[in-house]
Amino acid sequence: xxxxxxxxxxxxxxxxxxxxxxxxxxxxxxxxxxxxxxxxxxxxxxxxxxxxxxxxxxxxxxxxxxxxxxxxxxxxxxxxxxxxxxxxxxxxxxxxxxxxxxxxxxxxxxxxxxxxxxxxxxxxxxxxxxxxxxxxxxxxxxxxxxxxxxxxxxxxxxxxxxxxxxxxxxxxxxxxxxxxxxxxxxxxxxxxxxxxxxxxxxxxxxxxxxxxxxxxxxxxxxxxxxxxxxxxxxxxxxxxxxxxxxxxxxxxxxxxxxxxxxxxxxxxxxxxxxxxxxxxxxxxxxxxxxxxxxxxxxxxxxxxxxxxxxxxxxxxxxxxxxxxxxxxxxxxxxxxxxxxxxxxxxxxxxxxxxxxxxxxxxxxxxxxxxxxxxxxxxxxxxxxxxxxxxx
Length: 391
Fold this sequence. Notes:
This protein is mainly α and 391 residues long. Helices cover 82% and strands 0% of the residues. Helix 4 packs parallel to helix 6 (99-127) and helix 12 (213-243) packs antiparallel against helix 17 (363-386).
């Protein structure tokens, strides 16, 4: 474990938390405007939701490249490059003439944001291991919980005042702040530990990570949990605003309160002696609440039962996301950049798959079906994790 001064340790927590929060900021902040953007661009809700899918695709693909590149060139230069790409693509998205151009910009925005996400895990794993790593990831998860809490609330307020472009100017400002923080950040991946071969040879080693059986299990556990999360994220604005008839601001506040559930679950996961126990507990909770949501929808189709079960479901996801990340990063430590890339990309890849699907047919029914399927598969992989015998 690397020792830091208290001042730099606090800076590192804030910096890594903000980097990992790129996903929620890129995807969540403009969620309140999704229904209105369909009218602004004179297009369909599915094509507007495609912007969410393209950003998550960028968040997935970018990690595949930035993770290994950071193993060869170090974390800092890769971070700087990613932040510059994010800033440029964010400005371009503001001046999008069509929804198609906007969706392309969203993909590039996701690419830039992915650098922060994948390297936040890599830097934490460079500096910590075991329960110390779990602690750091839980703290980052708690800081990360601020992003989905504040993003839609700010988005709802800003969109009512100055429209969706104002939201993207705020994203641009956040990118510039993080670009400045990158300059203060001390390189965590020393020259001695960097990969000496070519980038292509490093990329060719990707299949090696899949030989680690439990890394694959932890990654699939995380991926299906993200399937639950992004099914909820991509449908929430339509369900709360169109299905239940609430305003953009009410949606933003509700979404923010729900996001606290992930932070609560992340913090409580540290109460477990073994991270595999936390994963099992969280997966059981997510599956149970998803099953109850289906029953409630069929029998009591009102807002409050839906809201309470959603909040409890997100607490369960907080347990899974922290425990699965800790277990996977420890398992793939010897190829940490590559491991972090594969792990992170899997979550956004599943998110990119489920996001457009929620708009098919009745959005409430489709969302609950997707959440139930992903929750069941999460529970299957958590069971495999729970049954693992100690080395």
